[in-house]
Amino acid sequence: MSITVLFDLDGTLTDPAPGIIGSFRNALVDLGHEPPPFEDLGWIIGPALRLSFPKVMGEGSDAEAAVERYRVHYKAGGMYDLTLYEGMMEAVAAIRATSDRMFVCTAKPEPYAVPIVERFGYAPHFQRVYGAALDGSLDDKADIIAKIIAEQGIDPARTVMIGDRMHDIHAAQRHGIASIGVAWGYGGVAELTEAGATAICDRPRDLPGMVAQLTS
Fold it and tell me: What is the pLDDT of residues 7-36, one digit of tens each?
C-alpha cells in the first residue's frame, strides 16, 4: 500500500519570519496602524493572514486591504527572505526515499509557495505543491487536504501530515490522517500537544524514523 506524506511549508520546511513579519508590519504602517514589535508577531506564521490582520487592527477592519498591501511588500522581495532549517533538506530526502508520494500542503497562496519550493531546492522531492487560493477560497487547510485527497486519490490511513501549528494538526484530524508536530516551528510543543498531534519531533533528523513508525 502506498505511503503519502504532506508537508507544511512555513515553520516546517522553511523559517520565513523575516519576510512574512516584515511584510505584515509594513502593511500595517501603510494603513496607518502602529505595528507590534517584530518579536511579538511569530503567531501570524501559519494561519491565513485574513484571520490575523483583524486581531491586530481590530474587528471590523478592512482585512482585504491589509492583505493587498501585504502582498505588495511580500512580492517585492519578502517572499524570498527566509532560511532553511538545518537538516531539513536531508530529512525530506530520506522520507522521499521510503514514501510513494509527497506533497507540500500550505496555507500560503499557491502562486507564492511554488516558486519558493523551487528556488530553495525542495521541488525535486515533491509531486506537487498545494496551497491556498488568492481569493481566500482555500484558507482552511482542511480544505486543501480535501483537494489533495480528491485529486490524488490518497488513502488517509496511509498518510502523514507534518506541520508546526495547531492548524496542521486539526486539518489532518478532520480527514483521519496521522500528524507529526515539529517543535522547531512557530507553534511549540504545548500548542501541538494540546491540538492532539499523533507525535512530536524535536529535530528534523528524527522525522524519517517517525514517519516510518506511523506508517508501518
Answer: 999 999 999 999 999 999 999 999 999 999
| Cell 502602529 found at | 34
The pTM assigned to this predicted structure is 0.92
- Distance, in Å, from the CA atom of 110 to the CA atom of 135, rounded to the nearest integer, reads 11
Catalytic residue annotation: 8
Task: Write out the three cell numbers for 23.
Answer: 511584510
- The set of cell numbers assigned to 158 is 496511509
Same-domain check for residues 66 and 91: no
- Average pLDDT (188-195) is 98
One domain, residues 138 and 69: no
The dihedral over CA atoms of 92, 94, 100, 103, expressed in degrees to the nearest 10, equals 0
Looking at the fold, whether 101 and 207 belong to one and the same domain comes out as yes
Cell numbers found for residue 130? 498545494
Domain limits for position 35: 17-80
- How many angstroms from the chain centroid is the CA of residue 3? 20
Phi-psi region of 136 (alpha: psi -120 to 50; beta: other; left: phi over 0): left
